[in-house]
């Protein structure tokens, strides 16, 4: 299953490239812009909890959901270390069932691209809709079509650090990028090898927005990543801010 072994080294590899403080600060700014209440927060595909622990301080109740138990164990440790009370739940975000509604739901760092079936994508959006309060907002981002097809697709990347070495080989076919990762992680004088395989689908913005429309969402904002900038043809990440359509 994806991320089983990767969870052990995820933060070491990702933290160098991702500014979690910036992401959380941007989401908080957008919350204020849209006058969102600070009661209930849900982070989907929470991974090791880096965004959730930063956002949780703004809310009375925090839920963190991921499909990987290994990632959730890392999240639990961070919640405990930061003295954050929250519910950590192992669940598929395309079949969300929490019996709770939220003021803010987030799903960051291209987790939405991991949903490669369009029917599952619609189930995911519908599940978010059902768990979002009427005046709540949903934040999610995608790796852009441009990034997945022109930058990541059919390329090989190498990472070499004292304790971790990995190769990342991508194959693009029918708008789906297959990512084959081989890791060597130092354990004493030896290196432990493990492999991961991940898949992301390249979605065009028009397709995403068509499904959002069918799910009764309205787009409140769309940005070039986590900056107050308009999306361009060469944007690599697109951040969506959506809410429920107002009843007529």
From TrEMBL:
Residues 42-136 form the Methyltransferase domain. Gene3D superfamilies: S-adenosyl-L-methionine-dependent methyltransferases, Vaccinia Virus protein VP39. One of its GO terms (biological process) is methylation. InterPro entries: Methyltransf_25 (IPR041698), SAM-dependent_MTases_sf (IPR029063). GO terms for molecular function: methyltransferase activity. Keywords: Methyltransferase, Transferase. Transmembrane segments: none annotated. This is Class I SAM-dependent methyltransferase. It comes from Clostridium cibarium.
